[in-house]
Amino acid sequence: VARIYFDHNATTPLHPAARAAMVEFLDAFGNPSSLHAEGRRARDAVEHARDRVAALVGATRDEVVFTSGGTEANNLALAGLGRGGRVVATAVEHPSLDGARERAHVDGEGRVDRDELRRLAAGAALVSVQLANHETGVLQDLAAVVAVARRAGARVHTDAVQAAGKIAVDMRALDVDALSLSAHKLGGPKGVGALVVREGIDVGPLLVGGHQERERRPGTENVVGIVGFGAAAAAVERQSAELRDRFEAGAIALGARVHGAGAARVPTTSNVAFAGVDGELLMQALDLEGVAVSTGAACSSGSLEPSPVIIALGAGNPREAVRVSLGRGNTRDEIDRVLALLPSLLTRIRNA
Ligand SMILES: Cc1ncc(COP(=O)(O)O)c(C=O)c1O
């Protein structure tokens, strides 16, 4: 039987439109900085993709700085917008924001403590708060975060890597100064992303090199990757919560608690815990049955440490957390098959 892939927050399969656009470009080898026809063809492709990525987040093309992914975009935001000053973030950010030393706590649902954020933001250069959490899907109230940052005179960045493609993201409506994107979370290839920086705001380069990306990110552009990113951005479809809700109803009937269930969330992420069941063991048991889920961010699993995000919620045993993240191609039937597998796996693990 076909495997069931419920780990779309780790990465999601390449969208057919992205694949087709990339294949078409594999042999178009021109350097976008070259002024001849080969170079101009590559430049046109990069700029077309830039328009498509900009459109996904309500930005203009000049605001898009292509990077090697979400990790680099976040690092560029900290270094470029933090300007050597204090950077304030939350306890539940992706590890690529670990450079932000001051962290506001979150409540039991994963929402940032606004009073603490306000205290920390005083005198800070940058406030960076994620839009959607990678493990729970919990959405932060960015309007409140922006208000806090503006009052403190700080710039605002949001890591929108896990939000873009799942909910509508509009840089101007959010009123942030910059946001991070990663192509492989929304149907594009790995190794490409963007920091979208509001016009008029300087962001210095992290690397030393050429003049690419209007001096904000040197290095010959990843043309094929950028082309795939653009096609994936243009192909993003609205997501519904139907499958997530179906899964959670079934899991709750089996005794699960759902992390962040009381907060606004993206419609496709569910983080559940079954009392007395180690999440790692459940993940492995499901894998043997042909089902891919995870126990936390892909980059921190394997460390055997429980997820810092779930620890930050301060509720229950963080080792019990299992993340089910849904995406393109998942079906009701797959949800039902996983729910049907769970009772015997839970019993087996509890009795081991
Ligand atoms: C919230 C969040 N930010 C940043 C990243 C990093 O993106 P990338 O894998 O493109 O470096 C990820 C993905 O792991 C993520 O989930």
Layout of helices and strands:
Blueprint: E1 4-5, H1 16-25, H2 37-56, E2 64-67, H3 70-82, E3 87-90, E4 102-104, H4 114-121, E5 126-128, H5 142-152, E6 155-159, H6 171-174, E7 178-182, E8 193-197, H7 223-235, H8 242-253, E9 257-258, E10 269-273, H9 279-288, E11 291-292, H10 308-313, E12 321-325, H11 332-351
Parallel strand pairs: 1-11, 3-4, 3-5, 5-6, 6-7
Antiparallel strand pairs: 2-8, 7-8, 9-10, 10-12
The site of pyridoxal-5'-phosphate (PLP) has 16 residues, from helix 3.
Tell me the span between the first and last alpha carbons: 27 Å
Question: Averaging pLDDT over every residue, what do you get?
Answer: 96
Low-confidence stretches: none
**How is the main sheet built?**
7 strands, mixed
Structural class: alpha/beta
Q: Helix and strand succession?
A: EHHEHEEHEHEHEEHHEEHEHEH
**Helical percentage:** 25-40%
Strand content: 5-15%
Q: Quickly count the helices.
A: 11
Describe the structure.
It is a single chain. The chain is α/β, with parallel strands linked by helices and 352 residues long. Helices cover 36% and strands 13% of the residues. The protein has eleven helices and twelve strands. A seven-stranded mixed sheet has the order 2-8-7-6-5-3-4, sandwiched between helices. The model has no long low-confidence stretch (mean pLDDT 96). Bound molecules: pyridoxal-5'-phosphate. Pyridoxal-5'-phosphate binds at residues 69-71, 74, 94, 96, 130, 134, 159, 161-162, 182, 184, 193, 297, 299. Pyridoxal-5'-phosphate (PLP) is lined by residues 69-71, 74, 94, 96, 130, 134, 159, 161-162, 182, 184, 193, 297, 299.
